[in-house]
Amino acid sequence: MSNNIVLKRGLDLPVNGAAALKTSKTVAADVVAIKPTDFRGCTLRLLVREGDKVLAGSPVLADKKCPDIIFASPVSGTVAEIVRGDRRKLLAVLIKADAQNEAIDFGKKNVAGMKAEEIKEQLLKSGVWPFIVQRPYGILADPTVQPKAIFISAFSTAPLAADLEYTLGAEVENIQTAVDALAKLTAGGVHVCTNSASSKFSALKGVKAHVVEGKHPAGNVGVQISQISPIMKGDTVWTVSLQGAAAIGKLLNTGKLDLTRKIAVTGPRANDPAYVEALPGTSMSEFACFAAQGESDIRWVSGDVLSGTAVGADGYLGFFDNQVTLLSEGNYYEMLGWAKPARPKLHSFARTYFSWLCPKKKYDMDTNTHGGVRPFVLSDVYSKVLPMDIYPVYLCKACLTNNIDDMEKFGIYEVLPEDLALCEYVDPSKIEIQSIIADGIALMLKEMA
C-alpha cells in the first residue's frame, strides 16, 4: 500500500485557545496520582501501603491477570493516600514527592545486542510497559502475544493538540532507541505515521514510514491502522504514543524512569495558553495560574475537548495525556435557540448557522449541546467526518442491543471511543456515541475473555 495517504473526510474544530510555542513554567509536583482508571480492561492490585517510601521506578500497582505488568511511581517520596470509591474500588494512589527525586537504576542497555525477551523484561520491570496499548479494545498489551505490527502516530490533529514537533523534537534519539527495541517484538515492523515528509520524525530509521494528510481524525492511530493494516478478527496490533516511545527510549538509554513531558495548557478559558513541563498525575491545581481567579464555571479536561476526561479543578493529569483544556460549562438554556436565524458566536458543521462563511474564525466553544437526546437520524453526516470503512450507526445500535455478532460485523475490532468522537460532535441526535462504544468494548472484553 502507498506510503502517502490522503484522507478527504474529517473536521478540524475551530476552537480558541491554542498554546503558544513556549514553556512558561516547570512544575515540581507536591503530590502525584497514579490512577487505575487511566488503563482500560485491567484489574490492578496494590503493592504498597500508606506511609511506604518509594523511588522513581518503584512498583506501586500490578495487573492481576499478568503480574509482570507493573505501574511504577514517577517520583520518589511517600505513599500519602490510597483513594477508594464505591465498594472499595481503587481510584488513585497519591504519592507525596520529596526534594531528592531519587530513581532506581535499571541499567543502561544496548538495544542492538538485546533479544526480544530481554527487552520485554526491561520494559516490564521498569514500569514503561503500560505505554504499549493493544488493539482491538485499547487494553494493556499482553507480553505473551506477538503483534502483527506496531504503530506510532507522530502527530496529532485533535483540537488544540500539543505540537509534537515542539514537545518531542529534542527526543528523536530516545525515540529511535525505542523504535529499535519495539521492532524486535514484532515480525510486522514498526509503522510511524507523520503528517509531512519534512517532519523531524521522518528521519527515524528502521521503520515503515507513512505520510498521512487530512483533517482530524487523521492523527488518530486507529484511523491510520484502518488505512494501512485493518484489524480483522484474531489480529493483534500494538500502538505506542510518541511520548510513550520517548519515555521507553530514555529508560533504555539512561537506565532510569523519567516521565517528564511538556503539557499544552489550552482552551477558551485559558489565560495566555502555553506549555508546562510536568509529570503525568500532576494535580490540576498546578495549572490554576492559567485560569481566571475565582471562576467556578470552568470545566477542567485532561486531554482534548473531544475525547478528554473531565477531572475537575481538584483532579489529576492522565497517564497518556499531554494536554489540559479549560472550557466554559454550558449550563445555560436558550429560549427558542433553534429558531434564531443568525448565531455568529456558534460553529455549525451542517451550515445551520453562518460559520461556514468564515472558515478561519475561531470560537469560544463551551460544553452546551444545544439540544436534547433524540432517536438516531439516518443520514450521511457521520461518513463526512469519519475516514474509516465502518457504519457508525449500525455499530452503535449493535452495542446498545449487546449483539456481539453485529458488533463484530460492523467494526468493533477497529475502533476506540476516540475514533468516533467527531461523529458525536456532528450528531444531530446528541447521542453519547463514545460512551456507547466504550460499553460495547467492555462487553466484548467480558464475553470474549
Describe the structure in your own words.
The model has no long low-confidence stretch (mean pLDDT 94). The protein has helices at 116-126, 164-168, 172-182, 221-228, 242-254, 392-400, 404-409, 421-426, 433-448; strands at residues 4-6, 23-26, 31-34, 44-46, 53-54, 59-63, 70-72, 77-84, 90-97, 132-135, 139-140, 149-153, 190-194, 208-213, 237-240, 261-266, 275-278, 298-302, 309-310, 323-328. The protein has nine helices and 20 strands. With 449 residues, it is α/β, with parallel strands linked by helices. The longest helix has 16 residues, at 433-448. The strands form four sheets. The protein has a seven-stranded mixed sheet with strand order 1-14-13-12-15-10-11.
List the helices and strands and how they pair.
Elements: E1 4-6, E2 23-26, E3 31-34, E4 44-46, E5 53-54, E6 59-63, E7 70-72, E8 77-84, E9 90-97, H1 116-126, E10 132-135, E11 139-140, E12 149-153, H2 164-168, H3 172-182, E13 190-194, E14 208-213, H4 221-228, E15 237-240, H5 242-254, E16 261-266, E17 275-278, E18 298-302, E19 309-310, E20 323-328, H6 392-400, H7 404-409, H8 421-426, H9 433-448
Parallel strand pairs: 1-14, 2-17, 12-13, 12-15, 13-14, 16-20
Antiparallel strand pairs: 3-9, 4-6, 5-8, 6-7, 8-9, 10-11, 10-15, 16-17, 18-19, 18-20
Helix pairs in contact: 3-5, 6-9
